[in-house]
Amino acid sequence: MAKKDELRNQREGTIINATSKRQEKELDKALVLVCERLLQKFPGIKLKHDKQWLLKNVVSALKEIFPEIDFYYYHDTSFMKPDGGILNICDKDDSKYPILIAEKKNQGTNDLRIAEGKGKQAKGNAIERLGKNVIGFRTALLQESIFPFVCFGDGCDFADDSSILDRVVTIAMFGRLNHQYLHNAAGSRFNRGSFYFRVQEWTASEMAEICYSISEKSVYYYYSKYDETSFF
Fold it and tell me: Which of 13, 92, 106, 228 has an alpha carbon within 20 to 30 A of 200's alpha carbon?
């Protein structure tokens, strides 16, 4: 059975989403390449990779930074879990500073349905879930002047004539797709993040190049803001 056929069948609970799992592995490969390059570029740097970010930790940090603002969450076990996790650098006190938050989304089976003579299905599920995570990560990094978030999306739902692209653009605060936005703009009011979307599947090497660029610049940002000597 083709991978996209498996993706369609998961709605009935028969199998796991093989397409997404395979592509997450490609993102994992990309992250390994990124870490190798960072360790070569910044000897002595301490990297920490987290698979998830607990909401209670986000809220705790926000309350300390913005004591005049009310923050709330319900459950201690709730978390945000991007497909590629959160890559951090650590200072001498083991405090963590995110340099890369990576997501990977595949969406679209209508190409298969049309080939089979069937009608199109509704689009958008993966993107709606993405929007929730982006809100959370943006809020978690409000104290910084960068937003080292990147999402790679591929599949027929992201063709040039697809309305889904405008949903992605909206999540990107109306920034351009396939463009890197790391540093916040207009007094940090626009902490957009980077969104790379197309029909063709992203390879590990392609994602690694983009992820490394974001990570490297993020390291320099923290070195400048908090003093490089704080990290060694």
Answer: 13
